[in-house]
Amino acid sequence: MVPSHRRVALLGATGSIGRQSLEVLRREPDRFDLVAISGGEQLAELAAIQREFGVSWVGVKSPAHRERLALLVDESVEILVGDEGLRQLAQSADVVVNAVMGFAGLPVTIGALEAGVRLALANKESLIAGAPLVERARATPGAELVPVDSEHCAIYQCLVGASAQRGRPDVRRLLLTASGGPFRGMSSAQLQHVTREDALRHPTWSMGDKITVDSSTLMNKGLEVLEASALFGVEVARIDVVVHPQSVVHSMVEFVDGSILAQLSNPDMRLPIAYSLGLPERLDHRWGALDFSSGVELTFEAPDRSSFRALDLAYEAARLGGAAPAWLSAANEVAVDAFLARRIQWCDLVPLVATVMEHYESDELATLGALYENDATARRLATGNLPH
Ligand code: NDP
Ligand code: MG
Question: What is the torsional sign of CA 51, 57, 62, 67?
């Protein structure tokens, strides 16, 4: 039975996925009740969301943020702080949307799964970094992990529902589609000169800055290979990347008999968000609906792995296993931050991550403490390799 009113926690409510999730919730006031939100720096925005939806619990990053937010909301609103706050908020609802950016989303992922509720996961970094720990938390009775990332939501839909959660013997391979980003077709020589502005101009998707930069290096696709492996229990040797510039086929599953299933729609994140919230029902909004009468062209090509080295780095991190994906993701976060702050060039991004990975020391990642230590070590190494 679908509860008539599902309580939703939207963590990272002020970001790109957060705002699009709010659009879905606005259209479905009888189905969903937004009970908890969180944000980072945009406190006025966070207060406005609290007022519009009458949210009871709000999460912020630090005690200083709490003081500033308290001036903007009614005193009946409970404000929770930091990682522990995020963890508690993730246990306050029937469905938790993790729309936080980066490793900072880890307490949401672990908190929701350990509470035995549905986690609608946009935040890929927490899953990639903490895969063995997330796997353990997924065993909690009632815990359900539904991907919001468009490629993974496509694969989930192709595999259909609960059986999608674990490796199925009849799946031969997963085919992750990639738009190729703004620099598709460019040679290594041309890529030496691309700028921050060029990297932030994605051809098909409008997203937050970090993932937009990741899409320009194909690191996003590398991270998504790791994400798919962790989500669906398929080893990376059976996950291929296919460049598909139109971003209409969101990903595909090939079965052992050669049959391939795909999910198609116009690129619109409201569709996977609504799917992950409404499951097992589909919400009636036609987000992303295609009009074939106006002509839909679909083309596919292999990624250029010599100009875009991030893909190979991700496959190598998967081969190393343990904490290697956590190192890759942490080093990449530092690199992207530095690039957005104009401290390094676009062409320095992937080499910086590669340098950090050369120092990786094997760790099986048995505990949450070990994960935080590995994350800190990789960040320290990456920061140490930035220009002064
Ligand atoms: P944004 O940068 O637009 O939003 C991130 C959200 O997280 C904001 O609410 C931000 O707060 C908050 N936040 C940032 N840093 C912290 C922190 N240290 N502690 C707590 N909260 C923080 O990102 P996106 O919405 O683009 O992406 C969110 C996640 O979804 C990422 O993991 C991304 O990879 C994934 N994703 C995004 C897609 C998209 O279309 N955007 C598609 C597929 C996946 P504030 O803004 O107030 O500072
Ligand atoms: Mg994606």
Answer: positive
